[in-house]
Amino acid sequence: MKHVAILLCVAIPFLLIACDQGKNGVADEQKEEYIKKIETKLLKMEDQILDLSERADNALTEDKPKFEAQLDTLAKVEKDIEKNFEELKTTEGEEWKTYKAKLDSLISQWDQLFEESRDW
């Protein structure tokens, strides 16, 4: 009986560590998938900025200030996205989900701003 108690005292901590590492592995995998998604989104955003810049260049004189203001706003949101994205990449464990929530909100804001400019 004494041997069983000693075995349990030794085995249980190892099992707990293994379970925790399994959770971290899943979190890391989810984080990596999200990083790839954001990298793709950032590339798409660059294309959208170029498109809007071209439209601003070809816009009527009275419409140019509207385009330029929208481009400035989009640039600020993009900068916030990039800042939070860089911070997300350095997180460990489940901490990345805090930045994911911020990024999802900023990307939603970006998409809404860009959609507004498409109607011009």
Briefly summarize what is shown.
Helix content is 88%, strand content 0%.
Summarize the helices and strands and which ones pair or pack.
Layout lengths: L1 H57 L5 H26 L6 H23 L2
Helix pairs in contact: 1-2, 1-3, 2-3
How would you describe the overall organization of this protein?
By secondary structure, the chain is mostly helical. It has helices at 2-58, 64-89, 96-118. It has one domain (27-118). The longest helix is centred in the N-terminal third of the chain and has 57 residues, at 2-58. Residues 14-19 have low confidence and may be disordered.
Oligomer: single chain
Strands, total number = 0
Beta-strand residue percentage: under 5%
State mean pLDDT (0 to 100 scale): 87
The rounded distance between the terminal residues' Cα atoms is 80 Å
Radius of gyration: 23 Å
Helix content range of the residues, please?
over 70%
Structural classification: mainly alpha
Count of structural domains: 1
The dominant shape is: rod-shaped
What can be said about the biggest beta sheet? none
Number of helices: 3
- Regions with little confidence, pLDDT below 50 for 5+ residues: 14-19
Q: Please provide the ordered H/E string of secondary-structure elements.
A: HHH
Characteristic terms for this protein:
single chain, 120 residues, mainly alpha, 3 helices, 0% strand
